[in-house]
Design brief:
heterodimer, A: alpha/beta, Rossmann fold, 3-stranded parallel sheet, B: mainly alpha, about 70% helix, globular
């Protein structure tokens, strides 16, 4: 392969960032996300145990279901005893709880926050609206299936699910992490183009980079 | 060869202090939870959090200073700890206390914060300058009563060497600075409340809320370094206060008991009081503890 071809391929590998103005393009990265393979088997097993026992959720309520997150912090449900703690910034958190329906405006923020989280990252989709749209199935302003836009690890069905079922969902997530079945981060990278196509179909005012570091 | 043994001992001492500081953090979270009527996280939760944040597969950096921020912070914690004799008369836990004095330790307490401010500033998140402004202004205001109290002690013992200060307090509970110079101890203990950043003065580092403070952009291993430092730094501060005001320790058990009780002071205050706004906490530190500190200096110098 000659030099010109390699350059063209490299150019194709870069993200277009079409939503940004020429001035802004220099400020953002245009590299595609890369797959990160796990470490050796035993170290990964140990780390998975630590990841499962220390879940930091992103304190970002994306819908009405976020109201069910608040009681978890109180004395009645006390999620801290399971190693679950809220965290204010996507950079430090590892679980993203999608709280119910995601409107067109919210899905943009969900994508941005999800991409800013550092992997391995896990997603819990809460409520029926995230599975098939729920009572908003024919709404012009909400998306129906969240897993068309970001990979989801655990669904908690119900409208609304009680805090107990949220805790049960977290328990299930722990089991899955320990069994090394939660690889949403790499799934997102491998199917990056498909996810982007879906996201861009619903987000009309795309004024952010194609991948938010 | 002598220095190699000393370094080996210092490494043991650092590991013991870090583990102790992190365990203390876990116990304190448990105590807070019981005060709220909850069960709270397990005592070893801080260790799990550190392993998890180290075990992240990717991390984002914003530049050289962003790398150096947590390193400076950790160096501040290490420097504070390494120039304090942890156990009086012990070879393993005396660290490098002969090499430095109290002023150096006070400088190191401030150094980490300044390095962190530079590092967090490069993160570019709008909340981190807010956290830095709050942190540094609160830091400056609680340094005032602490510095006054240190001056009072320096006048009292006629030295700034921590080992000498500990040696002067040996031989009975009445020789402690707590009883020979109570006003200085009161001023310093109030400034300890700010230093530990528990509830009345916790607005700087309010985790689990929107402004987490300076480390808001820190992720993965950067955050893990900061968390490790939090354990070491907490232990270093408590040991410093034990040495200066509560007669030091002659063995590890006494060290653990004394530092635990000193820490409990700020935990009890923290569990009972709501939070101050930054300007309220600054006003508080520059008012009562400062007056007490000045009175302590006048009292020890002229009476």
């Amino acid at each position: 392969m000659d030099k010109k071809n390699i350059k063209e391929i490299e150019k194709e590998m870069k993200l277009a960032n079409k939503g940004l103005s020429e001035k802004e393009k220099t400020l953002f990265s245009d590299a595609r996300p890369k797959t990160v393979r796990p470490l050796n088997k035993y170290l990964e097993k140990f780390l998975n145990w630590a990841r499962a026992e220390s879940l930091w959720i992103l304190g970002f309520g994306t819908g009405c279901g976020a109201i069910e997150l608040r009681p978890l912090m109180t004395a009645r449900y006390d999620m801290f005893r399971y190693g679950i703690a809220p965290r204010p910034t996507p950079r430090q958190s590892c679980v993203f709880v999608i709280g119910g329906y995601a409107s067109m405006k919210t899905i943009k923020r969900i994508v941005r926050s999800y991409e800013q989280m550092q992997g391995p990252k896990f997603v819990i989709a809460l409520g029926s609206c995230t599975i098939n749209g729920g009572m908003y199935y024919d709404s012009y302003n909400t998306i129906n299936r969240i897993d068309h836009y970001i990979p989801v690890d655990i669904y908690i069905a119900g409208c609304m699910p009680r805090p107990e079922s949220l805790i049960a969902g977290f328990d299930k997530l722990k089991e899955k992490i320990k069994a090394n079945e939660c690889d949403g981060m790499n799934k997102y990278v491998e199917n990056f183009d498909w996810y982007k196509k879906n996201q861009k179909r619903v987000i009309k005012d795309w004024n952010m980079p194609d991948y938010n570091w | 060869m002598d220095i190699m043994i000393k370094i080996f001992y210092a490494i043991i001492s650092i590991i013991v202090a870090t583990v102790y500081g992190l365990t203390l953090g876990g116990i304190v979270r448990k105590i807070y939870a019981r005060a709220h009527g909850r069960f709270g996280p397990p005592v070893w939760q801080p260790f799990l959090d550190i392993i998890k944040t180290h075990g992240k597969r990717v991390s984002i950096s914003h530049g050289i200073m962003f790398y150096l921020g947590p390193v400076f912070r950790f160096a501040g914690g290490l420097g504070t700890y390494l120039f304090i004799p942890v156990i009086f008369g012990s070879a393993i836990f005396s660290n490098f206390s002969i090499a430095g004095d109290l002023l150096l330790v006070m400088y190191f307490i401030f150094f980490g914060q300044l390095g962190m401010a530079l590092g967090a500033g490069e993160g570019g998140h709008p909340y981190s300058p807010i956290g830095i402004a709050r942190g540094l202004s609160q830091m400056t205001s609680f340094e005032v009563p602490f510095a006054l109290s240190v001056i009072a002690i320096a006048i009292q013992y006629n030295t700034l060497n921590i080992t000498t200060i500990v040696a002067a307090q040996q031989g009975g509970i009445t020789n402690w600075t707590l009883f020979t110079n109570p006003l200085a101890v009161i001023a310093a203990m109030i400034s300890l409340l700010g230093m530990n950043m528990h509830s009345p003065f916790s607005i700087v580092l309010a985790p689990q809320e929107i402004p987490i403070g300076p480390p808001i952009e820190m992720n993965s291993s950067f955050l893990a370094t900061l968390q490790t430092n939090r354990g070491l730094f907490a232990a270093a501060k408590l040991v410093l206060f034990m040495n200066l005001y509560f007669g030091g320790a002659t063995n590890l058990l006494i060290m653990v008991i004394k530092t635990f009780l000193i820490y409990m002071f700020s935990v009890f205050v923290g569990a009972a009081f709501p939070r101050f706004r930054p300007e309220q906490s600054m006003r508080f530190f520059l008012k009562w503890p400062t007056i007490i500190g000045i009175v302590a200096i006048i009292f020890i110098a002229y009476f």
